[in-house]
Structure formats: structure tokens, C-alpha cells
Amino acid sequence: MIAPTDVSMMGITFVIADLHGRLDLLEASLAAVAERAPEGATVVFTGDYVDRGPQSRQVVTRLMAGPPPGWTWICLKGNHEDMMVGALTGTAAGQRWLDNGGLETLQSYGVERGGKPGGSVPAEHLAWMAELAPMHRDRYRIYVHAGVDSTLPIEAQDPETLIWMRYAPGVEDGHGDFHVVHGHTPHKDGPRHYRGRINLDTMAWRTGRLVVAVFDDDKPGGPVELIEIIAPGSKVRPGP
């Protein structure tokens, strides 16, 4: 059972999903967001800050530093943070994490390939990841890493579901009147839009292409704008 995180609205909400160690895309996204809302707004990060990409430590450090004055940042937990915390605190098997990008994360913390993690990851980084909320809700939308069980009330959602579930292909459901905003399931040609939800995972760590969704806090439904961020040198074409 969880209590949704409710933060006062600031007119517009930007959503950034599945960074996976791409500090370059994080910084470029924040710059694009600041251009559109120079006086501040809300940014929701839907998790998976670590693994696969080259700069997991730097991404975590940047997010932990927090936003500039006038901004609200909401960092949610992804399944890769869940795996990392479990592996490095001994509460879950470590090999699964290592096989899913954990080796790259350890390298960003200065551990040579084949080396032992030891105390390479600062305790405050693990504590920050462990304490991340699995869900944020505002007037019209629910923000999570992976998805929401549409058959259960919001207050009865299992955190494991919110950070690990996969929607079956073609599922259009959000959650009642709430539009669900998530990532987790990668599509190079994303985002994928559905009647009641949007999936923002564009496999940015590999493609070099990340899409920031912009929502009007006073309007229900999907985004009013999509901001496409493409890293220099990426061999991808802009989306439609």
C-alpha cells in the first residue's frame, strides 16, 4: 500500500524518462526545459537514472543536487534503482543487476571491470535511491516508472507493480480518468501514445534520442508538446 505524492501545481509539468547514465541528454533536456519555462515549473523524472549508459554516477549526483530556485523536481524510482540498491545492500541477487547494465554503473563509480564494488558507491547515493517514491499524482495524471494496475485503487497499488510491470501490447488503459505517464518499455521510435497513457522510453542510452513530454496542469489527457533531444553524433533521425 502506498500514499501518492502530491505536490502543488505550477502550471506546467515536464517529464523525463529513462536516462540510463546519459548525463549529456539530461543536461540538454534541462536546458530545453529552462528555455520554455524560465521562471520555473515542475519536472518529473520517471526513474532508471542508472545502468547501461556511461555516466550513472554523474546523473545521480546531478539529480541529488536538486533544482534551481523556482523549480520543483520529482524523482521517482525505476526498476534499475531497485536492482542496484538490492544488489549493493545484499537484499537481492547481484548478478541480475550486473547483467542489466550494473557493470557500466560500477565503472562510472571507479570500479574496474571485474573488480569488486566494495564501498565504491557512496552510502548517500544508495539511500537516495532507496527512498525514491514509486508514484506521483497531480490533478489529471499519474506518473510512474513502469505502469499502473487499472483494476486497483490508487492507494492500493503495489510499489513493485509501479516500477516493474509491463503493459500487454496495445493496452490503452490509464487509470480511470487519470492519464498514466511512464517509461520502462523501450521503443526506439517512441514515444508510444495510447488513449489513457503515454510511454516515453525511447531507449535513449543507445539511440542518443530522448523525448521530454510537456503537460498543461489545467488540461486532462496527454502532452501538449514533445521536446526531442538528440545528442550530437547520434545516428538517429528525428521522430515524426
Short description:
One of its GO terms (cellular component) is cytoplasm. The protein is built from seven helices and ten strands.
The CA-CA distance between the termini, in Å, is 39 Å
Low-confidence stretches: 1-9
- CATH T-level topology: Purple Acid Phosphatase, chain A, domain 2
CATH secondary-structure class: Alpha Beta
What's the number of extended β-strand segments? 10
Q: Helical amount among residues, as a percent range?
A: 25-40%
Strand order of the largest sheet: 3-2-1-9-10
Strand content: 15-25%
Q: What is the arithmetic mean of pLDDT? A: 92
**Largest sheet: number of strands, sense, barrel closure:** 5 strands, mixed
Instruction: Please write the string of helix (H) and strand (E) elements.
Output: EHEHEHHHEEHEEEHEE
Morphology call? globular
Indicate how many domains the architecture comprises.
1
Domain Calcineurin-like phosphoesterase: 15-199
Protein name: Serine/threonine protein phosphatase 1
GO biological process, one term: RNA decapping
Pfam family, one: Metallophos
